[in-house]
Design a protein that fits this description.
With 171 residues, the protein is an alpha+beta fold. The chain has one domain. The protein has 4 helices and 6 strands. The chain has a 6-stranded antiparallel beta sheet with strand order 1-4-5-6-2-3. The termini are far apart.
């Protein structure tokens, strides 16, 4: 009877180990692709990974406040430079949903998609690490990756959301 219990216990442990390992592989935690560097700022770490969106194209041109906030942004230049970096093989991009690497050829397919235009890129999602030095009242933010999003419009001309174009890791 004791052997049966031991075999049952070992079987459960092995099954549990295998199922946990499979779940880890299916994870879309993009942090696994990022090379963390040992850091002298570790004691000041306040956010290991924080993710937030920034609108970079005003979906409502009558919104004067957003227009003013974006007044100094060179959005077209920024978007073009990111695409150029991929096409010149200076940067690697990843599919937002699968985490799979995208080739320049894959990105060209995205650009040929009828609902995509660079002009529609209106959102950037940042993933960052934040450090705060309370003694000196300074803060440092390091970008881990960004995701570009382009406007998705419904039946009307109103923006109802954003679709991810790609994710690009920063070192």
């Amino acid at each position: 009877m004791n052997k049966f219990i031991i075999y049952l216990f070992l079987s459960c442990v092995i099954i549990n180990f295998i199922s946990c390992r499979e779940k880890r592989q299916e994870s879309t935690d993009h942090r696994q692709d990022i090379k963390y560097k040992p850091d002298s700022l570790a004691e000041n770490l306040i956010a290991d990974t924080i993710i937030y969106d920034v609108i970079i194209k005003n979906p409502y041109p009558d919104d004067e406040w957003t227009e003013k906030c974006l007044g100094y942004l060179k959005r077209d230049k920024f978007v073009d430079q990111l695409f150029d970096a991929v096409y010149n093989k200076q940067a690697t991009v990843y599919d937002f949903f699968t985490g799979e690497k995208m080739s320049p050829r894959d990105l060209r397919k995205v650009e040929k998609n009828e609902d995509f235009e660079r002009e529609k890129v209106g959102k950037v999602q940042f993933a960052e690490t934040w450090y705060f030095d309370a003694a000196n009242l300074t803060m440092e933010k390091r970008i881990l990756y960004i995701v570009l999003g382009y406007e998705f419009k419904g039946d009307s001309t109103e923006v109802i959301g954003y679709k991810p174009v790609f994710r690009i890791n920063f070192n």
